[in-house]
Write a structure and sequence with these properties.
alpha/beta; 7-stranded mixed beta sheet; Rossmann fold
Amino acid sequence: MTGRSLAEELRAAEALLAGAGVPSPRVDAELLAAHLMGAVTGATVSRGQVQAAAILGRPAPDGLAELVARRAAREPLQHLTGLAPFRGLELAVGPGVFVPRPETEQVAEVAIAEAHAVAARAGSVLVADLCTGSGAIALALAHEVPGAVVHAVELDRVAHDWAARNVAASGLDVRLVRGDARTALGELDGTLDVVVSNPPYVPPGAVPVDPEVAQHDPAVALYGLGRDGLEVPRGIAAAAARLLRPGGLFVMEHAEVQAAAALDLVRSTGGFDDVRTCADLTGRPRMVVARRTLDASAVPTPSGSGEPARADVVGDSHA
């Protein structure tokens, strides 16, 4: 323990983080303290417990100042704690995998709602999460939808390793495949009820503003290739048209400014009806949702059969 009280250390941390431009300085300081206190006790420590300990005049845990300094340098909070929350799950994350974002929880929600409806009607549901990254969406589906058979695809080796770690720790039935998201799961063509994806979609010249993203998220999870950043999403849309049964649902995240382009790319893929944009929890247009046409003829040919030109990119996600 340090010589300073926890209350003093938290006040100093809040000031330092605020000065560094961290959006939620007090919350981050308390979460870092909770992480260290939990490491000592071996139990999960909440922010409420940290606040109570500060009121009681408890000493600050060893290492808090060092972690706060790293956070002030804009190292992601989730890298410092090793965990990222996602729809009630805690996922292991770190360098080499995209940190799941709260806005992606709504993308998962649309897929989960559809999966629930199918499972209630048919007793089971087949789902694929393309570009699974840490495994966040796939694990949320397996956790929240009884009877779901969930397949997850990730090509990037490091991200796949993080997903495998999360799947193993969860004990959930997620069938993780390392492969090209455009061509994987061929044995399931025309059978899936839901395909969901949070693929790379950032245009090549659009460097993210937040240092946590620009400096720490892997480039293969950010940039979607092509002049518009939508080359990877185009491949994902074609894969979804191939994989879905007639009437199956496709859900894909995109940037707010790509709403019109995402609609166009799904429509131009062919094989989809009822193509629409849906909003995230803040009301921003952040996903395209489409229904596989009931006419199952003319399934689109997967783009890039064989090895892709940038095999390190297709299949990695920001989810």
